[in-house]
Specification:
Layout: E1 24-25, H1 33-41, H2 56-65, H3 73-92, E2 97-101, H4 107-115, E3 121-126, H5 129-142, E4 147-148, E5 151-152, E6 174-178, H6 188-202, E7 207-213, H7 218-225, H8 231-246, E8 256-263, E9 268-275, E10 279-283, E11 286-290, E12 295-302, H9 306-315, E13 318-325, E14 331-338
Parallel strand pairs: 1-5, 2-3, 2-6, 3-4, 3-5, 6-7
Antiparallel strand pairs: 7-14, 8-9, 9-12, 10-11, 13-14
Helix pairs in contact: 2-8, 3-4
Bound molecules: S-adenosyl-L-homocysteine and N,N-dimethyl-L-histidine.
N,N-dimethyl-L-histidine (AVI) binds near residues 73, 184 and 225.
Keywords: Methyltransferase, Transferase
Protein name: L-histidine N(Alpha)-methyltransferase
Enzyme class: transferase
Amino acid sequence: MRQTTTAPRVDTPPPAAAAPDRPTAADGAGDDIAAIALAGLTATPKCLPPRLFYDAAGSRLFDRITGLAAYYPTRTESRILHMQAAEIATRAGRGTTLVEFGSGASVKTRLVLDALRDPAVYVPIDISADHMMTASTALARDHPGLTVRPVHGDFMQMTTLPLDDAPAGTAGRRLGFFPGSTIGNLLPDEAVAFLRRAACMLGHDGHLLVGVDLEKDPARLIAAYDDPEGVTAAFNLNLLTRLNREAAADFRLDRFAHRAIWRADAGRIEMHLESLADQIVQVAGRGIRFRKGETIHTENSHKYTPAGFARLARRGGWRTDACWTDPERLFSLHYLIQNH
Ligand code: SAH
Ligand code: AVI
C-alpha cells in the first residue's frame, strides 16, 4: 500500500505584490491647459505644444501608431536595441538606475532592463500620468527585484530627479534612456538645452542612450506621418477634442484636417491642423478667428544624420561612444558619454 505522509503545513505569507512607488509630481504635472491653448492660438502663426497630444486617448492613439505598417521607427528601434542589448549592458555596468524620458508604455524599456546586470531602479518620466502608471504597474510586476519610481511631469522643465532617497545599494550609474526619437520633437536648440539638463540629472558619470530617426526619402516620411488607416490624423485631431473638454473650446472636428509636410530646409516633418473654412472658435471665453486654409502647427519631428546628431550631442555636453543603425539606415541609437 502506498503511504502518504502529510508534511506539517507552514503558512508563509505570499510575497508582497511588486508595485511601483506612488508617482512624484514634478513641474508641468498640473499644466493650465486653457492658458497654454490661448497662448498658442493667439500667436502668429498659430501653434500648440506637442506634449498636449498625450491625454489618455492621445497616449492610446500613439500606441496604435507604433504598430502601423507605415510607422517604421518603433519596430526598427526595437530591432536595434535587441541586437545591441549586450553592448549596452557592458557599457552601463552593474546596478544601474535607468531613467527614461517620455516613457509612454515602457515597451522598449523591457529590452534594456532584461539586458542590464542587476538594474536597481527604474525612473519613468512622463506627462501622461495614468498611462505611465499602468505601464509602471505591469513592469514592476514583471521585475520583482526592481524599484520603480515614476515621475509625473514635463521633462523640459526638470533640473533634478527625486532620487535623493535612493534605496541602499544603488551604487551603479544613472543611465538615461530617451527612445522613440522624441528628441526630434524638440527644436535643435531645445534639444541642446535638454541634453545639458540631462547631464545634470544623470550625474557626473551618467550615460545616455538616445533613439534618433534618420533623414530618408520624403515619401517614406510622409507615409509614416499620414498613414492610410488615419490613425495619425486621429492622433492630431484628438488635440481639438482635448481642448473642447479641458479648455472650454468648441472646435468642430469636421472643420479641420490633418496635414503632414516635409520641410527640407529644416530637416523635419511638420504636423498641422488645417482649417477647412473661415470660422470663429471659442476657447476659454475668447473667440479665435481662423481663415480657410490657415493651420495650427502641432508638431515638429526632426530627422538627423548620425554625424549631425553627434554634433548636436557635443553642443549638449556629450560625445558619441557608439552609434548603431539598422541595415536600411532608417533609425539610429546613440550611446552618449559625458564630455568632461
Ligand atoms: N518612449 C515611448 C513613447 C514615445 S511617445 C516610445 O519610444 O515609444 C512620447 C512620450 O513622451 C509620450 O508618452 C508622452 O506622453 C511623453 N512626453 C511628450 N512630451 C513630454 C514632456 N514634455 N514631458 C514629459 N513627457 C512627455
Ligand atoms: C513621439 N514622437 C517621436 C513621435 C514622432 O514620430 O515624432 C510622435 C508622432 N507624431 C506622429 N506620429 C508619431
